[in-house]
């Protein structure tokens, strides 16, 4: 006899899916990456709870870099003491359009810098980000670091004591099928569920303490954020 009827799984899944109010769900990618998670109702509910925990942590903290530092350490995704590094992606410049300039409250002639990076925890790419920022609103030292090193943006501008205004948050994949709350969870299957390359997408504006925006970004979080051994209770 099961120790937890399907109703328990429904309640747990509903709680996980409701952690972040207002998060949009856009299941738009084809699954393509294997995972260590089990293809069971309990494991799928656990995966959703973990994903929404990360989602909530990112949305409630100003710096995605520091949030990923903690996620990387807490889930042992890299050797102890590792910090998030930014791998620059060059040759893919995206000039700021009118919408970007409006978000940053700058005129058509104000220089806007662009930086595309992959945020890496050890050998795992946890996110890819497009970042447009106003160099004139940073210090000379910050601009120098951003132009000449692989420092993550959030770490480079930490001294600004900035805040974050979230514009949107999309869940790009869910381990639970559409309509699970009415039809019930799918039965256990063989192997592991497959994951798409990206699981979450956030859009945000970073602001100085006086409310002046200095950066706007699009962050896409990869399936590697779930690339750790499944909880022991699920593996047994």
TrEMBL record:
Residues 1-28 form the signal peptide. It comes from the Bacteria. Keywords: Plasmid, Signal. This is Uncharacterized protein.
């Amino acid at each position: 006899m099961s120790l937890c009827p399907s109703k328990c799984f429904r309640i747990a899944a509903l709680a996980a899916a409701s952690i972040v109010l207002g998060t949009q769900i856009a299941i738009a990618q084809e699954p393509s990456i294997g995972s260590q998670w089990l293809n069971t109702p309990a494991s799928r509910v656990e995966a959703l709870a973990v994903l929404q925990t990360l989602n909530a942590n990112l949305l409630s903290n100003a710096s995605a870099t520091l949030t990923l530092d903690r996620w990387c350490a807490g889930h042992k995704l890299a050797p102890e003491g590792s910090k998030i590094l930014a791998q620059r992606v060059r040759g893919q410049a995206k000039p700021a359009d009118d919408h970007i300039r409006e978000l940053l409250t700058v005129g058509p002639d104000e220089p806007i810098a662009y930086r595309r990076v992959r945020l890496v925890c050890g050998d795992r790419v946890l996110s890819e980000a497009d970042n447009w920022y106003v160099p004139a609103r940073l210090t000379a030292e910050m601009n120098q670091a951003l132009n000449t090193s692989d420092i993550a943006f959030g770490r480079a501008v930490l001294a600004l004591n900035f805040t974050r205004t979230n514009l949107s948050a999309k869940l790009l994949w869910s381990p639970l099928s559409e309509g699970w709350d009415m039809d019930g969870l799918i039965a256990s299957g063989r192997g592991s569920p497959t994951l798409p390359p990206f699981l979450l997408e956030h859009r945000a504006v970073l602001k100085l303490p006086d409310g002046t925006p200095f950066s706007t970004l699009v962050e896409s979080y990869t399936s590697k954020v779930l690339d750790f051994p499944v909880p022991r209770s699920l593996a047994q």
